[in-house]
Amino acid sequence: MNCFRKIYCRTFQTAFKIALPFLPYRKPKILGSVNAIPQLLTKKRCGSVLIITDAGITGLGLTKRLEKSLKTAGIPYVIYDKTVANPTTANVCEALSLYYENGCNAVIGFGGGSSMDCAKALGARVARPHLPLSRMKGILKVRKRLPLLIAIPTTAGTGSETTLAAVITDAQTRHKYAINDFPLIPRYAVLDPKVTVSLPPFITATTGMDALTHAVEAYIGNSTTYGTRKDALLAVSLIFQNLDTAYTDGSNISARKNMLKASFYAGCAFTKSYVGYVHAVAHSLGGEYNVPHGLANAVLLPFVLEAYGPAVSKKLHHLAVAAGLAEKSTPQKQAADAFLQALRDMKKRYQIGDTIPEIREEDIPKLAHYADKEANPLYPVPVLMNAKELEVFYRQLMEP
């Protein structure tokens, strides 16, 4: 990246960091069970609710406990379960029609990050009915209060239940973009481990490493605060203590509960301190090839950290200590190397490879351009890279 663009990026990021204490960030209020939702809806005088999820969730019957609670309380609801892995503008339009047809005034995002992103984007459309999603991409374009938004994560990874971002894919162009604004932070997050126990091991692993990526990228960036560093370290500690158990014994309620907490804290960290090039590259892969976001992050994370080099050694040392991989007295480089090796070992244990087979050489310049546009100047990464430099990661992920 040339000198002038670096100055622009760092100036932009510094201004944002200075503004952090004055911005209206908030954490969602936490509910411990889906059975607490009817009482909340009654208290908020919500007449009808739209549940946004996907076919996999309804197929597993994960919404049944919530549906039973709503029926018992006499609260009307309707389900939209056509959300795809990387939610599209078409998903949002279909859900929006259901919302209006059924006179809804509350929204529940039930599932992984895709369902919650779709729910947030729908809320944005309700708040700004005359503004298309494409004109809300970027920062602070929503600016109006959403209908009551409740997030129920069924994967312990995305952290979407805490964040101000919704990532949407244009149904025509396949371009994936983020909408970032404070009204998108859900009012309530339901951390109910019972809805996560049927998650298959591989999805448990990739979403867990998604949460780990959130915590790591938030921690190593240049816009951290005392609070985000604390949340990120707690998330890393919880993940290293519980992900293996959740992976091998999915019915372990304690491990599932702790992974939900880890995802929540990682989400709290990155919604303020942002992410980095792992996410920027992963988003482009999701938009172009529909690669699941957690999988893309898991594959990419060690590659990007290695590319940052000595610039992140000190912070990787701190993360290694939080993960129980090193002592405070361990030499910095040794601890950083231990953390990187632990990531590689996790990928091997969870049968996560080092390649994304869908990548085509002719697509790389376009994908790198999207990643560059998303990350720069917004993400306060440790080492700045332009599109040409980001192309290296796509080639690393190609099959030999």
Description:
By secondary structure, the chain is α/β, with parallel strands linked by helices. The protein is built from 15 helices and 9 strands. It has helices at residues 3-19, 37-43, 55-59, 64-72, 89-101, 113-127, 201-220, 226-248, 253-273, 277-289, 293-308, 313-322, 332-349, 364-375, 387-397; strands at 29-31, 49-52, 77-80, 106-111, 138-139, 148-153, 165-169, 176-180, 188-190. The chain has a 6-stranded parallel beta sheet with strand order 1-9-6-4-2-3, sandwiched between helices. It has a 3-stranded mixed beta sheet with strand order 5-8-7. A hairpin with a 6-residue loop joins strand 7 and strand 8.
Q: What are the defining features of this structure?
A:
single chain, 400 residues, alpha/beta, 6-stranded parallel β-sheet, 3-stranded mixed β-sheet, 15 helices, 9 strands, 52% helix
Using only C-alpha atoms, the radius of gyration works out to 20 Å
Q: Would you identify the regions where 5 or more consecutive residues have pLDDT less than 50? A: none
Instruction: Give the CA-based shape.
Output: globular
Query: How many individual β-strands?
Result: 9
Helix percentage range: 40-55%
Q: Which strand order spans the largest sheet, edge to edge or round the barrel?
A: 1-9-6-4-2-3
- Counting helices, strands and paired strands, the structural category is alpha/beta
Mind summarizing the main beta sheet?
6 strands, parallel
The CA-CA distance between the termini, in Å, is 28 Å
DSSP strand content: 5-15%
Number of helices: 15
H and E order: HEHEHHEHEHEEEEEHHHHHHHHH
Mean pLDDT: 95
